[in-house]
Amino acid sequence: MSRQEAERQGRRGESLAAWYLWLAGWRILAKRQRIGAGEVDIVARKGRTVAFIEVKWRANGAALDQAIDARRLRRVARAAEALVPKFAGAGDDVRIDVILLAPGHWPRHMANVWQP
């Protein structure tokens, strides 16, 4: 897959994940938040919880199990830490989530995947 095709698929996955979250009662605060430390695909809020969400799209369900690793989560955690003041207030719960997507599979939303 070319770099352009991978980028297109990634954006499509992020859009699908945002719809999934919205249907589950989350409010999307931002998408593709880049900061020197890394990038957060989606920032969403539900009640007093603010989630910094990494989205992974794979061509098949079998590839989802290897889509996320500690190195990627560390990068998201560094970016989220820098973005917390912008999106979360005093008393808010902050967490890092992952949404895994593949054609023909329901989205897999893994909540609070990062514990420093």
Task: Characterise the protein shown here.
With about 120 residues, the chain is an alpha+beta fold. The protein has a single domain, classed as Trna Endonuclease, Chain: A, domain 1 (3-Layer(aba) Sandwich). The protein is built from two helices and five strands, in the order αβββαββ. A five-stranded mixed β-sheet has the order 1-2-3-4-5, sandwiched between helices. The radius of gyration is 14 Å and the shape is globular. The protein starts with a helix and ends in a 6-residue tail after the last strand. One of its GO terms (molecular function) is nucleic acid binding. It comes from Novosphingobium fuchskuhlense.
Keywords:
globular, 116 residues, single chain, 34% strand, alpha+beta, Trna Endonuclease, Chain: A, domain 1, five-stranded mixed sheet
CATH fold group: Trna Endonuclease, Chain: A, domain 1
- Proportion of residues in β-strands: 25-35%
Give the count of helical stretches: 2
Secondary-structure-derived class = alpha+beta
